[in-house]
């Protein structure tokens, strides 16, 4: 019962629509009506600038961290899963909340930042490697979408090959990450293949 309640709480954490809320509260703008139409940090950077993009990014990451850290609640001990496995379960619930937020008409973001927060909360080592991969790809290409996609594809490689995890749940989670990221970035993939994907201008200051 406690795990179920914690899972619902994790989903609700993920459902907080950071991009929509801050855009409306501080600028009177629903970012879903502009740019890519996505309720995520990248679109906030594009539409409203880094002053709002950074807080939205931090909040989206924090949702994943806090959801994963629910695994450390004492009432959740001795339920058949270790801390990392519970962190992944709750983290995935938060990502689902971010993708389909109950507080924003089930129209959310793409989940990359929240996934990253889950990695920080569940397995920081893989989070650091993911940051390195993302940063390298982004600075080489200037495409946030491509950096996100490649980082997600490399995630199961580092979990299975580099970190040599044997837990089935961790391996399954690592395979879910690129699947979800590629699905949510399907339009970006088409634009990348067509050469029409936009590079993000983080210097926007409106």
Give a verbal description of the structure.
With 206 residues, this protein is mainly α. The protein has one domain (2-194). Helix content is 69%, strand content 0%. It is globular. The termini are far apart. The mean pLDDT is 90.
Structural class: mainly alpha
Tally of strands? 0
Principal-axis shape equals: globular
Low-confidence stretches: none
Report how far apart the termini are.
47 Å
Q: Strand fraction band?
A: under 5%
**Rg, please?**
17 Å
* Average predicted confidence as pLDDT: 90
> In sequence order, what are the helices and strands, one letter per element?
HHHHHHHHHH
SS element count, helices: 10
The share of residues in helices is 55-70%
Blueprint (SSEs and pairs):
Elements lengths: L1 H14 L2 H10 L13 H8 L1 H20 L13 H17 L12 H11 L1 H18 L2 H19 L5 H17 L1 H9 L12
Q: What is this structure, in a nutshell?
A:
This protein is mainly α and 206 residues long. The protein has helices at residues 2-15, 18-27, 41-48, 50-69, 83-99, 112-122, 124-141, 144-162, 168-184, 186-194.
What are the key terms here?
69% helix, globular, 206 residues
